[in-house]
Amino acid sequence: LPHAVMSRSVRLLSSMADSFLRKHFCFLTLFLLGMEGSSPAHLQTQPQAPEDTFPPLWHLVPENIEDYPIRNHKTVINVWNYLERLGLYKILLKSSAKYFSGLGPNNVNNILWGLPLQHGWQYRSGRLADPFNSTGCGHMDRESLCISEFSWWACMNYYLAAIPFLGALDSDFFEELPNEVELMPPDKQREHFCLSTAECNTQIPKVMSAWRDFFKIFPKIQWSYHSIDNSEQA
User: Under a CB-based contact definition with an 8 Å cutoff, are residues 208 and 163 in contact?
Assistant: First the structure.
């Protein structure tokens, strides 16, 4: 019964994500901008341990698509593993760093920081674990890096991690990749999650379109920085 309830919740989340991004895409951008107060640039000025500045285990996270395994000529990413899902954010941050060079060194003012920092908080607080504890997924005494498809938080985060990454991929935001990228399905409820650009464009076309548009903005942001610099020099 609990799994049946969670299955209905996941279907509802998919519908909510589609509706939200179509109606409130500008608000998402403002949310990311508002999260600047949680960026490493801000956190480094606060009295806290250095390891708390970044998401947990940040130093272990893949930062290039080439860091993921290749199977059958496809780059395969297990988005149900905390490190591999967090790696999607790290790749987005690294790929977008050049567009934020005018905001300070080391990419610490990148507006995308809000997403991995939130995901790190979800992991640290146990929100990505199996809420029924029937599988051990996500529980520190068993499979601590596992992300449960039965976690409401994990499913919602899927639409703020995997889908943005695929949208960026579909917008040619990254440099040319040698292999097609495919996301691994969860053990259960496979039908609720699209796993490739082709599949997501079929299942949630408006959401994918919104994320493609979002990542096409970045080159224009870079251009405006250069324009400001040139006008000041003139």
Answer: yes
Given a cut of 50, whether residue 60 has pLDDT beyond it is yes
**Do the beta carbons of residue 86 and residue 116 sit within 8 Å?**
yes
Task: Please report the sign of the dihedral spanned by the C-alpha atoms of residue 222, residue 225, residue 231, residue 232.
Answer: negative
Beta strands in 105-149 (DSSP E): none
Q: How far apart are CA 55 and CA 44, in angstroms?
A: 13
Q: Which residue has the tokens 């870079």?
A: 222
CA distance 62 to 59: 8
CA pair distance 64, 11, nearest whole angstrom: 31
Is 80 exceeded by the pLDDT of residue 223? no
Measured CA to CA, the distance from residue 119 to residue 85 in angstroms comes to 9
Pick left, alpha or beta for residue 57 (phi over 0 → left; psi -120 to 50 → alpha; otherwise beta).
Answer: left
How far from 60 is each of 79, 84, 140, CA to CA, in Å?
15, 10, 17
Decide: 172 and 212 in contact? Cβ < 8 Å: no
Whether pTM > 0.70 for this model: the answer is yes
Q: What is the residue whose two structure tokens read 């609720």? A: 192
Residues 6 or more apart whose Cβ sits within 8 Å of residue 153: 122, 127, 128
Amino acid, res. 55: P
Strand, helix or coil at 63?
coil
Residues 188/42, Cβ–Cβ less than 8 Å = no
Mean pLDDT computed over 148-158? 93
Other beta carbons less than 10 A from residue 151's beta carbon:
22
Find the mean pLDDT for residues 207-221.
85
Determine the Cα–Cα distance for residues 234 and 230; give it in Å rounded to an integer.
6
